[in-house]
Amino acid sequence: MNPPSRATIGDVARHAGVSKGTVSLAYSGKRPVSEETRRRIFSAAAELEWTASHRARALATSRTGAIGLVIARDPEVLATDAFFSKFLSGCERVLAEHDMGLMLHAVTTAEAEHLVYERLAAGRADGVILLDVEIDDPRFALVRRLGLPAVVLSAHEPTRGETAGLPTVFSDDSPAVTELVTLMAEAGHTRIAHVAGPAHYIHGRIRQEAFRAAVRERGLDDSMVIEGDFTAASGRDATTQLLDLPEPPTAILYANDMMAIAGLSLARSRGVRVPEDLSLSGYDDSELSAHLSPALTTVGTGAVQRGELAVTTLLAALAGEAPGAVLADHTTVLPRGSIAPPPRP
Amino acid sequence: MNPPSRATIGDVARHAGVSKGTVSLAYSGKRPVSEETRRRIFSAAAELEWTASHRARALATSRTGAIGLVIARDPEVLATDAFFSKFLSGCERVLAEHDMGLMLHAVTTAEAEHLVYERLAAGRADGVILLDVEIDDPRFALVRRLGLPAVVLSAHEPTRGETAGLPTVFSDDSPAVTELVTLMAEAGHTRIAHVAGPAHYIHGRIRQEAFRAAVRERGLDDSMVIEGDFTAASGRDATTQLLDLPEPPTAILYANDMMAIAGLSLARSRGVRVPEDLSLSGYDDSELSAHLSPALTTVGTGAVQRGELAVTTLLAALAGEAPGAVLADHTTVLPRGSIAPPPRP
């Protein structure tokens, strides 16, 4: 057997007549390199038997080749979150183009979360995407202290200073919620309820505020709001409470599909027909929502596109740009069979 | 500002009077180091200003501190797979104890998949877990050629040579499927159908074979099998086909919850009551299954425990042990409200 190749990235660069940085770029794809130069570098590498693991090591000296994503949620919720896996596949699509991977950590305590960010900063990731941000999120200060580049995913346009100057990919759920209320109101509903997500999550709070504003604007009662926690169990329980009211709602707008599907099932088990007796809508466009009978009116969140945009924005930040706040404009109401006129009194 | 620290792991080791390996262990936690030794190493590191990124780099020279997981499935399926996220959280639980992360790649083509394994082998992961293995899976030869340690997750005990000598964490879905058929048969059902997963997935095939064997053993018709693809859409369509039969089944055993929930919804929309007219069962114990009305009889797969076991087995393999085939014995039938006696003829 031959001894292992001792060629370095410098040897390859000299042989190809380019800089070491250009050799790196040819392999990483982080910035374009001309086809001619790339070919010259690849043949130099082949001639010198400069192998993949050498290349990888060379790349690793400046960049880890990975971005980090820390999921600080109950794994049980994670398992049913339609948004998460789609977001992940969007991230992956862009990362693959840049020869990068996603370093994923699921944590269940604040201590573990803190430690993971320290580890990521210590050479395991070039940057991170912050999901599920809360008001005054302690991670903003943490990543700044660690010098870890970060992009924030937010459910509304950040006000000045709100995300501590971090680049932010934001969407705005308010127009979709307003549109759902309009669909229900125009079908004739006057008693519309909301099963909300937890208000300490920005997207939970935004949807609830948009709901209240939209029904108030139509002169309707905005008090039928029950706060769930995005789980099916909370959707079922909130629906029970609403249907037990002396004057139950004829339409329910849920803050996600999981709660809506459990609510639909509960209503039917009580002999309440959907949509004849009760109209309802979800949020997230989970795979199941389109294939229920009736199919669930819901909101497509452009989760894949948001993953792509989050990574693109983070890569721009790593390249020294200052992306600021970027609007992810992919939110779409998907009207299906679960909204119909209310029963005649 | 001070110039950056030039201390090496060797300096720290000499200063603390231990080997470089012990310094590594003190930081990685891969094997226990006495509290006294750990303290000595940490103060040496502090004195020499040996910082986190130096430590990370030192660890990275021999180990990447990560294991790889490549998901070669349509992201749409991934988004609704109850097993995946639970499995991930089990992996993460053990990885966190060992100061390790999970390098995750989602790929949608065979070419991309191949490339990702090459990259992982080239310094991005110490080893990989192979999910969704197929018969004669080409990844067995690939990881061997790349010298990439791997653990296979399988839905049955591997026969000699089947997983090419790779350590395997296996479960056996057959007893749970047999138990579900027994529940249905003992409730009085004689026309039992199966909505299967794709037979090219081992777990799809195993469940289907167990179903056919169990109904045949009771002298019942084993021909009512429709192959779905684990998506809600296929569950809905298969259920339509079954209910349109001249003599429809009175019980349907689905190969996963997603197909079962779409089937339940379809049946109800046609006025078929569950469980009065039609009994059904799922597989996976998704969060939604427990909170439908009626709750869905399903199978808990011990996904979290399997994630833990897969990582533990991979770490054992990395440490030079030869784990062989390890049984993950966490599969449990969860009887709920969706199975009842058939309607009287």
From TrEMBL, chains A, B:
Keyword tRNA processing: no
InterPro entries named in the record: HTH_LacI (IPR000843), LacI/GalR-like_sensor (IPR046335), Lambda_DNA-bd_dom_sf (IPR010982), Peripla_BP_I (IPR028082)
Keywords, comma-separated and alphabetical: DNA-binding, Transcription, Transcription regulation
Domain of life: Bacteria
PROSITE patterns: HTH_LACI_2
HTH lacI-type domain: residues covered: 7-61
Gene Ontology MF terms: DNA-binding transcription factor activity; transcription cis-regulatory region binding
Signal peptide positions on this chain: none
Protein name: LacI family transcriptional regulator
